[in-house]
Amino acid sequence: MKIKIVVVLVLIQVYWSCAEPPHPLDPLSPSELNLVRTIVTNSYPASNLTFHHVALDEPDKPQILSWLSSPHSRALPRRAFVVARFKKQSLEITVDLSTRSIISSRVYKGHGFPTLTFAEQGLVSKLPFSYEPFKDSIKKRGLNMSEVVCAAFTVGWYGEENTKRIVKVKCYYANAATANLYARPVEGVSMVADLDDMTILSFSDRFGIPVPKAEGTEYRASKLKPPFGPKLNGINVTQPHGPGFAIDGHSVSWANWKFHLGFDFRVGPIISLVSIYDMEKHKYREVLYRGFISEVYVPYEDPTEEWYYTTYFDCGEYGFGQSASSLEPLRDCPSNAHFLDAFYADANGKPVKITNAFCIFEKYAGDIMWRHTEIAIPNQVITEARADVSLVVRMVSTVGNYDYIVDWEFKPSGSIKFGVGLTGILGMKGGAYSNMDQIKGEIDIHGTLLSDNTIGVYHDHFFTYYLDLDIDGQRNSFVKTTLETRKVKDHKIPRKSYWTAVTETAKTEADARVKLGLEAAELAVVNPNKKTKQGNKIGYRLLPGSVAHPLLASDDYPQIRGAFSNYNVWVTPYNKSEKWASGRFVDRSRGDDTLAVWSRDREIEKKDIVLWYTMGLHHVPAQEDYPVMPTLSTGFELRPTNFFEANPVLKTIITILSVPDDDPVDEFEVGQEFADKEATVMAVKTYSIRRAVEYKILESDRLKYTVQCANFGQGCR
Ligand SMILES: *[C@@H]1O[C@H](CO)[C@@H](O)[C@H](O)[C@H]1NC(C)=O
Ligand SMILES: *[C@@H]1O[C@H](CO)[C@@H](O)[C@H](O)[C@H]1NC(C)=O
Ligand SMILES: *[C@@H]1O[C@H](CO)[C@@H](O)[C@H](O)[C@H]1NC(C)=O
Ligand SMILES: *[C@@H]1O[C@H](CO)[C@@H](O)[C@H](O)[C@H]1NC(C)=O
Ligand SMILES: [Cu+2]
């Protein structure tokens, strides 16, 4: 055994000394995670230290920026940031990988606890099975213990003076009849368990409600019974020329974009160093230094004993990255997708591989990038259209019952679209009802009756994005353009009113807090020192997605912890340690380390600034969301605004593939000239010609080409 360990260590060393140095923003590799574990456990020998977050401690921004200007000149320090539990204390440890040493270690004395590990969630949810009062309750309900499954739920904070690492444990029924355990809660029974001691502290069995029936809850195709439908014919995405993107390590380039794709246990995908090639300026221009989902706050709206505490912080409490699901080829991503694995450290610090954590693909959904038909010019009709192709980076995080599909979509036009799809299974509670007629008068079931004894509980989803935009450099400003109604003063004109744009630059953080939806406003991050030839400040605009404001009282405990959702937009000066909107230690946090607290009245004009955007939705469940929810898609966009001199996709070239004949497909490109120079093939029209290579194109008008067979041998018809 000993020999084996030595060999492994030697291998790690060899790996370290010969491998090419990683990009400074690369997530920790499995060997680096192992090294972190070795270094940390060496300092805490023979102990039960548990790892709750092991992440790259990225070099400071100025270091990265200078490294970028001459990469490979010198390797930047590789450091890891570790959150661990040791002797019932939370530790924050910084490890230097090159010197193999701990450079700082401190006990966190503030409020809140680290992210829950899968291991402890697994252990704590086994406790009820050896807990007699629970076993009695199950027996009393006539349920079969071996078909019960339990899960751990964070409990939040409700003003308690002292807090421990406790969770609620609630149970469900899952058996051969259905895999949909969330649809079959054993309602009325709950336990409080201590995560550090792994013991049940209290138990409550307040009432018995029949466990909802299994029928109608199953979602596995293999278990469903006919009739099936609707039937969809499969669609395959083929790219005969291969993918248009290139991946080098964690760096991705495609069309006019390039960026770095990282992964973090807590937040999932981290996209950095996003820049776009400007054809006119002949260079890549910076857009986004770093972006990720900082927090996903999901308060449920049932104030009863078994549900009031249910207010999840999916990143800080459960680890949005830890919860990433392996993507299924041809189901989660199209056939032209490329898959990437991701790694995180488990409770023991050991690397865990998430196979196919990401997929990257070029997306063509039949949409139009731009078009125009001109009929005003006599005797001609001009039509130009370009197919809308984009690049998508996708990850799915399955946090318990819910599945979140997170897309980063890059468009050649310079837009970045942030897609979020909500699917999976609703949070459901048991109820005594089977029909709305039974729910009369003052009764509030705090949700929608979905099936017999099954209530989909009201809740919200708030997605808070961290967006460190660097528009052509770091010194940026946040500009709000309000559209204001004006009265027409010239009485000779019959119009009475119009609107005009009034632009205001935020000087401090306080000026930049925005609640969307109350007024017509355009929000942009600009580089005030750089202007277009026309003199407009170059910038990027935020096109918000679905707007929701928290509806909880602002002094309610969950909302104190989730106060970063009080505004849809905040802008802060860049500060490396301000990245998690909900704070560093979110489980049982008290809201004293959130974006809402850091954001004061710091100067943000002509500064390196970070835009925090919260997209939200209130979810009143519907019967169609049951037993599994069809994806509800939402999203927002960052769109160049006076960033380019003109439409950057005017001269876009898209390889057009001709309509397949029974013969092999001929291909030609937009703008391609044929050898005989008789005609130039332009975009969409090419679809109407088959086997164009074999034809000489004589003339083309709006809908068809006049062609002559150029090859009187085989192939012409
Ligand atoms: C570590 O945990 C195990 C099982 O939980 C326990 O048996 C052992 O005594 C612990 N060791 C230390 C050093 O605390
Ligand atoms: C309880 O469930 C298990 C597993 O599904 C099954 O094997 C067993 O027969 C059940 N026992 C009773 C009493 O129904
Ligand atoms: C589907 O597309 C992929 C590439 O995107 C290709 O490898 C595969 O052969 C195609 N399958 C069919 C049935 O056309
Ligand atoms: C950076 O942020 C942390 C956490 O909010 C704060 O303690 C620190 O003072 C900030 N540093 C600067 C220079 O503002
Ligand atoms: Cu929902």
Automatic annotation (TrEMBL):
InterPro entries: Cu_Am_Ox_Cu-bd, Cu_Am_ox_TPQ-bd, Cu_amine_oxidase, Cu_amine_oxidase_C, Cu_amine_oxidase_C_sf, Cu_amine_oxidase_N-reg, Cu_amine_oxidase_N2, Cu_amine_oxidase_N3. Residues 114-211 form the Copper amine oxidase N3-terminal domain. Residues 668-716 form the Transposase MuDR plant domain. Contains 1 topaquinone per subunit. Residues 23-107 form the Copper amine oxidase N2-terminal domain. Residues 235-650 form the Copper amine oxidase catalytic domain. Pfam families: Cu_amine_oxid, Cu_amine_oxidN2, Cu_amine_oxidN3, DBD_Tnp_Mut. Residues 1-19 form the signal peptide. Its cofactor is Cu cation. Keywords: Copper, Metal-binding, Oxidoreductase, Signal, TPQ. The keyword Cytoplasm does not apply. Topaquinone (TPQ) is generated by copper-dependent autoxidation of a specific tyrosyl residue. One of its GO terms (molecular function) is primary methylamine oxidase activity. The keyword RNA-binding does not apply. Its EC number is 1.4.3.-. Belongs to the copper/topaquinone oxidase family. This is Amine oxidase. The lineage of its organism: Eukaryota, Viridiplantae, Streptophyta, Embryophyta, Tracheophyta.
